[in-house]
Amino acid sequence: MSTAAQIPRNIVFVHPDLGIGGAERLVIDAAVGLQALGHQVTILTSYRDRNHCFEEARDGTLDVRVRGDAVFPSSIAGRLSILCTILRQLSLVASTGLASNELKQLDPDVFIVDQLSACIPFFRLLYPKAKILFYGHFPDQLLVKQEGGVKQTLKSLYRVPFDAFEGWSTSCADGIVVNSKFTRSVFKSTLPGVKSRELKVIYPCVDTSTSSHDRSNATIWPDKQLLLSINRFEGKKMLDLAIKAYAGLSPQDRAKAKLVLAGGYDPRNAENANTHKDLQDLCASLNLTHATFRSNDTALTNLSSEDMDVLFLLSIPNDLKSRLLSSASLLIYTPTNEHFGIVPLEAMLAGVPVLATNTGGPLETIYDGRTGWLRSPDKIEEWTKVMQKPLIPSSADKLRAMGQAGRAQVLSQFSRTKMAQSFHDEIERLVQSNGPRAPIFGLPSLLAMIFAFVFAALAVVLAVTRFVPAA
Questions:
Q1: Where does the Glycosyltransferase subfamily 4-like N-terminal domain lie (predicted)?
Q2: From CA 341, how far away is CA 332, in angstroms rounded?
Q3: CATH superfamily placement of domain 225-414
Q4: Contact 165, 452 (CB under 8 A)
């Protein structure tokens, strides 16, 4: 394994919307890491808001170019978002490879495409000398919100051509890597075209460069143990599990602990608002006192005065998130079948043991009994038992050792340097490979293309009458 770019490569990332999210953080970290290894890196994107993106995407650290954003909107009448996203990416391909000689000037050795695979076969046709690596976060077709009933049936029919198009275009990549072994199994079971392909795992990273492990003066509640959950306020995150398990503690134990549920919240998002309301109602039904604070509340600066059982902190700033992690005795991570899960890594980096479900990505990052605990989401009483551990003085040394083990694991396995080196090695493997490439055209792929674009034209017409569901 090499430690630097022996031959600097021209690498072009292609990402649909360079906003603020886990996928965008991975792209930025990979790009910065590869650039540090000596490669020439460019990011092509269909959209970037300079007021809503990571600093490296706007301060000149990276060469970010917005292309193909002027022709198609992000949706039509609030619908057809998947169609518009695909068309915007194909417009990006056309603007760099057909309407200008930008692609030729970039002269890429490798494209790294993530999240949306629509551009892959077209970049292969326009610039056949470049290899294409696809990074899979999760199959797009499985991220569609399930609504049930006739509406769900219509949405499923609407998605058929796009799902076929996703499977075909993904299979055209020269190499495919994913964010976890769990995601790999889902890709293979969902996309027939990649079932027999080798899918390597490149784990996401956390920023280990600025991490401090000094927890001596950071405690927000000196007389209580902080049980912390950090997740978006969405039903699928199963935040109710944390509240129910906390309610299982005896009144004496609850007096020694505080449950804090912090995370992303958009007041315009109905699901965020409904989930928050449901969790408040759950607290009331379990006789748990609770309070809610938003990012602009002045009381956030003095949370230590709050004497509630449960605190809801909505859209907290990064500095408060860091303070919470530095104060926490236990991180509670409730989602099931999470694709990977970056929050447990952030907690372990801060020296905090993690309690998570025994499903999905956490199975690959948390060692049960050594860096945290993995428990069934169906056995609430087992979650309560783990929550009791920080409340027992004799457990302090063991918990401290678990925190240290978790931190050491993150530093060795989940750093930006480690992730960038994994990308570098995969890039070199692709560039130096002389074997046959994945076929672009065949009867199934041709049918998928024709079906998708005929259906797309029909969908645009139907959108005006609002018969097609949003997706």
A1: 20-209
A2: 12
A3: Glycogen Phosphorylase B; (3.40.50.2000)
A4: yes
